[in-house]
Amino acid sequence: MSDHSPSPDRLRTVLMRGLKRRCPKCGQGALYRAFLKPVDNCNQCNEQLGHIRSDDIPTYFTVLLVGHIVVTLAVITEHMYSPSTLVHLSILLPLSVVLMLLLLPHIKGVMISLLWHLRLGDGDKKQ
């Protein structure tokens, strides 16, 4: 069975590896060399990963997820306590930034893993 088999179990495994910021092929090597900089090659299995570009899609999904969380909290807070706008801003803005910074590497890992699984990298590299 190839590393890129189309089975749902294989896809789930690959996506979970990305969520954990691990190499989509072996699950052992780190996916990033810096905060959001993917490694060129896995240090465990030597799989080439540097050519895979997720571009802006992880950011869109992260903003979508954080927006749903923060807006839900804002509506619930407003309904229950009716705090001032300053209280909303002083809590929800830092919360938004922290959630973005925490979730973005994981969501980008999932997207890189999905692109790897589907054999989609940049247009110049044929796998």
Main attributes of the structure:
mainly alpha, single chain, 3 helices
Short description:
The protein has three helices and no strands. It has 127 residues and is mainly α.
Care to count the β-strands? 0
Kindly name the structural category. Answer: mainly alpha
Helix and strand pattern:
HHH
The parts where pLDDT drops under 50 for at least 5 residues are none
Number of helices: 3
Tell me the major beta sheet: none
Alpha carbon gyration radius: 18 Å
Query: What is the 3D shape?
Result: elongated
How many domains? The number is 1
Residue-averaged pLDDT? 91
Note the gap between the termini: 17 Å
Percent strand? under 5%
Helical residue percent band:
55-70%
Describe the protein's architecture and organization.
There is one protein chain. The protein has 127 residues and is mainly alpha-helical. The chain has one domain (8-117). It is 55% helix and 0% strand. It has helices at 8-19, 57-81, 85-117. Helix 1 (8-19) packs across helix 3 (85-117) and helix 2 packs antiparallel against helix 3. The protein is elongated, with a radius of gyration of 18 Å. The chain starts with 7 loop residues before the first helix and ends in a 10-residue tail after the last helix. The model has no long low-confidence stretch (mean pLDDT 91).
